[in-house]
Design goal:
8 strands; about 30% strand; Aminopeptidase
Length: about 200
Protein backbone atom coordinates (compact mmCIF):
# COMPACT_ATOMS: atom_id res chain seq x y z
CA UNK A 1 0.00 0.00 0.00
CA UNK A 2 1.29 3.46 -0.86
CA UNK A 3 2.17 5.96 1.86
CA UNK A 4 -0.43 8.35 0.44
CA UNK A 5 -3.16 5.73 0.88
CA UNK A 6 -1.99 4.88 4.39
CA UNK A 7 -2.13 8.55 5.31
CA UNK A 8 -5.61 8.93 3.79
CA UNK A 9 -6.95 5.92 5.69
CA UNK A 10 -5.13 6.37 8.98
CA UNK A 11 -5.86 10.06 9.53
CA UNK A 12 -9.53 10.19 8.71
CA UNK A 13 -12.21 8.18 10.44
CA UNK A 14 -15.35 8.70 12.52
CA UNK A 15 -16.76 5.95 14.71
CA UNK A 16 -20.30 5.21 15.90
CA UNK A 17 -20.78 2.21 18.17
CA UNK A 18 -24.04 0.27 18.42
CA UNK A 19 -24.73 -2.60 20.80
CA UNK A 20 -23.04 -5.10 18.50
CA UNK A 21 -21.12 -3.24 15.82
CA UNK A 22 -18.87 -0.24 15.39
CA UNK A 23 -19.59 1.66 12.19
CA UNK A 24 -16.42 3.36 11.08
CA UNK A 25 -16.48 6.02 8.39
CA UNK A 26 -13.27 6.88 6.61
CA UNK A 27 -13.45 10.61 5.95
CA UNK A 28 -10.53 12.44 4.41
CA UNK A 29 -11.79 15.77 5.75
CA UNK A 30 -11.60 14.58 9.36
CA UNK A 31 -8.21 15.10 10.98
CA UNK A 32 -8.75 12.77 13.94
CA UNK A 33 -6.54 9.70 14.19
CA UNK A 34 -8.27 6.40 13.52
CA UNK A 35 -8.30 3.43 15.86
CA UNK A 36 -7.51 1.14 12.95
CA UNK A 37 -3.77 0.55 12.84
CA UNK A 38 -3.56 -1.85 9.90
CA UNK A 39 -5.53 -0.47 6.98
CA UNK A 40 -4.01 -3.05 4.66
CA UNK A 41 -5.75 -5.78 6.64
CA UNK A 42 -9.04 -3.86 6.60
CA UNK A 43 -8.93 -3.59 2.81
CA UNK A 44 -7.99 -7.27 2.56
CA UNK A 45 -11.05 -8.21 4.59
CA UNK A 46 -13.25 -5.99 2.42
CA UNK A 47 -11.87 -7.73 -0.67
CA UNK A 48 -12.55 -11.11 0.94
CA UNK A 49 -16.20 -10.17 1.50
CA UNK A 50 -16.36 -8.85 -2.07
CA UNK A 51 -15.27 -12.25 -3.39
CA UNK A 52 -18.15 -13.88 -1.51
CA UNK A 53 -20.98 -11.49 -2.32
CA UNK A 54 -19.86 -10.33 -5.78
CA UNK A 55 -18.53 -13.64 -7.04
CA UNK A 56 -18.94 -12.83 -10.74
CA UNK A 57 -17.45 -9.33 -10.62
CA UNK A 58 -15.52 -8.90 -7.38
CA UNK A 59 -12.97 -6.14 -6.83
CA UNK A 60 -9.58 -7.33 -5.61
CA UNK A 61 -7.58 -5.88 -2.74
CA UNK A 62 -5.34 -4.09 -5.22
CA UNK A 63 -8.31 -2.57 -7.06
CA UNK A 64 -9.88 -1.33 -3.81
CA UNK A 65 -6.58 0.10 -2.59
CA UNK A 66 -6.08 1.94 -5.87
CA UNK A 67 -9.63 3.24 -5.71
CA UNK A 68 -9.13 4.63 -2.21
CA UNK A 69 -5.96 6.43 -3.26
CA UNK A 70 -8.29 8.86 -5.06
CA UNK A 71 -9.40 11.67 -2.72
CA UNK A 72 -12.99 11.46 -4.00
CA UNK A 73 -13.45 7.83 -2.92
CA UNK A 74 -14.27 6.68 0.59
CA UNK A 75 -14.78 3.50 2.58
CA UNK A 76 -17.02 2.79 5.55
CA UNK A 77 -16.97 -0.50 7.43
CA UNK A 78 -18.88 -2.28 10.17
CA UNK A 79 -16.67 -4.01 12.73
CA UNK A 80 -17.85 -6.32 15.49
CA UNK A 81 -18.17 -4.21 18.64
CA UNK A 82 -16.46 -6.72 20.93
CA UNK A 83 -13.31 -6.30 18.85
CA UNK A 84 -13.62 -2.57 18.19
CA UNK A 85 -12.38 -1.78 21.69
CA UNK A 86 -9.27 -3.81 20.92
CA UNK A 87 -8.51 -2.42 17.47
CA UNK A 88 -4.86 -1.86 18.30
CA UNK A 89 -4.57 -5.62 18.10
CA UNK A 90 -4.92 -6.07 14.34
CA UNK A 91 -5.74 -9.76 14.77
CA UNK A 92 -8.99 -8.68 16.45
CA UNK A 93 -10.23 -6.47 13.58
CA UNK A 94 -13.27 -8.24 12.17
CA UNK A 95 -14.84 -6.39 9.25
CA UNK A 96 -18.36 -7.73 8.66
CA UNK A 97 -19.71 -5.20 6.14
CA UNK A 98 -18.43 -2.41 3.94
CA UNK A 99 -19.58 0.45 1.75
CA UNK A 100 -17.45 2.04 -0.97
CA UNK A 101 -18.65 5.39 -2.23
CA UNK A 102 -17.49 8.59 -3.85
CA UNK A 103 -18.35 12.24 -3.41
CA UNK A 104 -17.83 14.68 -6.26
CA UNK A 105 -18.99 18.19 -5.47
CA UNK A 106 -22.69 18.01 -4.47
CA UNK A 107 -23.32 14.45 -5.67
CA UNK A 108 -22.38 11.12 -4.10
CA UNK A 109 -22.64 7.58 -5.43
CA UNK A 110 -22.63 4.25 -3.65
CA UNK A 111 -20.17 2.11 -5.60
CA UNK A 112 -20.30 -1.12 -3.61
CA UNK A 113 -21.98 -2.36 -0.46
CA UNK A 114 -21.80 -5.84 1.00
CA UNK A 115 -22.15 -7.88 4.16
CA UNK A 116 -20.29 -11.06 5.04
CA UNK A 117 -22.74 -13.97 4.46
CA UNK A 118 -22.46 -15.15 8.07
CA UNK A 119 -23.62 -11.71 9.28
CA UNK A 120 -26.46 -11.04 6.86
CA UNK A 121 -30.08 -10.46 7.89
CA UNK A 122 -29.03 -8.76 11.14
CA UNK A 123 -29.58 -5.14 10.11
CA UNK A 124 -25.87 -4.47 9.72
CA UNK A 125 -26.11 -3.16 6.15
CA UNK A 126 -28.93 -0.83 7.15
CA UNK A 127 -26.95 0.54 10.08
CA UNK A 128 -23.81 0.98 8.02
CA UNK A 129 -25.57 2.63 5.08
CA UNK A 130 -27.56 4.88 7.42
CA UNK A 131 -24.36 6.06 9.10
CA UNK A 132 -22.67 6.49 5.73
CA UNK A 133 -25.54 8.63 4.45
CA UNK A 134 -25.28 10.83 7.54
CA UNK A 135 -21.59 11.33 6.83
CA UNK A 136 -22.25 12.11 3.17
CA UNK A 137 -24.99 14.59 4.06
CA UNK A 138 -22.70 16.27 6.59
CA UNK A 139 -20.27 17.10 3.80
CA UNK A 140 -22.81 19.30 2.05
CA UNK A 141 -23.88 16.74 -0.53
CA UNK A 142 -27.30 17.21 -2.10
CA UNK A 143 -28.02 13.58 -2.94
CA UNK A 144 -26.80 10.03 -3.43
CA UNK A 145 -27.15 7.64 -6.36
CA UNK A 146 -26.86 3.87 -6.45
CA UNK A 147 -27.57 0.99 -8.80
CA UNK A 148 -29.30 -2.27 -7.88
CA UNK A 149 -30.55 -5.36 -9.67
CA UNK A 150 -34.30 -5.26 -10.28
CA UNK A 151 -34.60 -8.79 -8.83
CA UNK A 152 -32.84 -7.93 -5.57
CA UNK A 153 -36.01 -7.34 -3.55
CA UNK A 154 -34.27 -7.23 -0.16
CA UNK A 155 -31.80 -4.56 -1.23
CA UNK A 156 -34.49 -2.48 -2.92
CA UNK A 157 -36.64 -2.60 0.22
CA UNK A 158 -33.66 -1.50 2.33
CA UNK A 159 -32.88 1.42 0.05
CA UNK A 160 -36.50 2.51 0.03
CA UNK A 161 -36.53 2.46 3.84
CA UNK A 162 -33.59 4.86 3.79
CA UNK A 163 -35.26 7.27 1.39
CA UNK A 164 -34.10 6.10 -2.04
CA UNK A 165 -36.48 6.27 -4.99
CA UNK A 166 -36.15 4.79 -8.46
CA UNK A 167 -35.32 7.38 -11.12
CA UNK A 168 -34.26 5.20 -14.05
CA UNK A 169 -34.24 1.61 -15.33
CA UNK A 170 -31.54 0.06 -17.54
CA UNK A 171 -33.19 -2.70 -19.52
CA UNK A 172 -31.35 -6.04 -19.58
CA UNK A 173 -28.24 -4.61 -17.94
CA UNK A 174 -27.27 -7.69 -15.88
CA UNK A 175 -26.52 -10.92 -17.74
CA UNK A 176 -25.59 -13.08 -14.72
CA UNK A 177 -28.26 -14.72 -12.49
CA UNK A 178 -28.57 -13.18 -9.04
CA UNK A 179 -28.00 -16.51 -7.27
CA UNK A 180 -24.46 -17.38 -8.35
CA UNK A 181 -24.61 -20.67 -6.43
CA UNK A 182 -27.06 -21.91 -9.06
CA UNK A 183 -25.27 -20.46 -12.05
CA UNK A 184 -24.82 -23.91 -13.56
CA UNK A 185 -28.47 -24.82 -13.42
CA UNK A 186 -30.28 -25.27 -16.73
CA UNK A 187 -32.95 -22.80 -15.69
CA UNK A 188 -30.51 -19.99 -14.98
CA UNK A 189 -28.51 -20.67 -18.11
CA UNK A 190 -31.67 -19.87 -20.03
CA UNK A 191 -32.75 -16.99 -17.81
CA UNK A 192 -33.32 -13.59 -19.27
CA UNK A 193 -31.10 -10.57 -18.52
CA UNK A 194 -32.13 -8.55 -15.49
CA UNK A 195 -32.78 -4.81 -15.44
CA UNK A 196 -30.75 -2.41 -13.34
CA UNK A 197 -32.54 0.19 -11.26
CA UNK A 198 -30.98 3.58 -10.65
CA UNK A 199 -32.12 4.93 -7.30
CA UNK A 200 -31.58 8.31 -5.71
CA UNK A 201 -31.80 9.73 -2.20
CA UNK A 202 -32.15 13.53 -2.01
CA UNK A 203 -31.29 15.24 1.28
Amino acid sequence: MTEVLKENLNKNLNKTVSNQYAYQIIDKNNKNLTDITDTTDVIRQVADIESLVQSEDSWTQAVIAELLADKFNHLSVAITAHTSSQLKNTNQQKVVAYCLYNIVFEQAEILRIGTCPNYQRQGIAKGLLSQTLQDIKGQGTEGVLLEVRADNDAAIALYQQLGFKQIHRRIGYYQVPNDASHVNSHQNKLSQPVDALIMQCIF
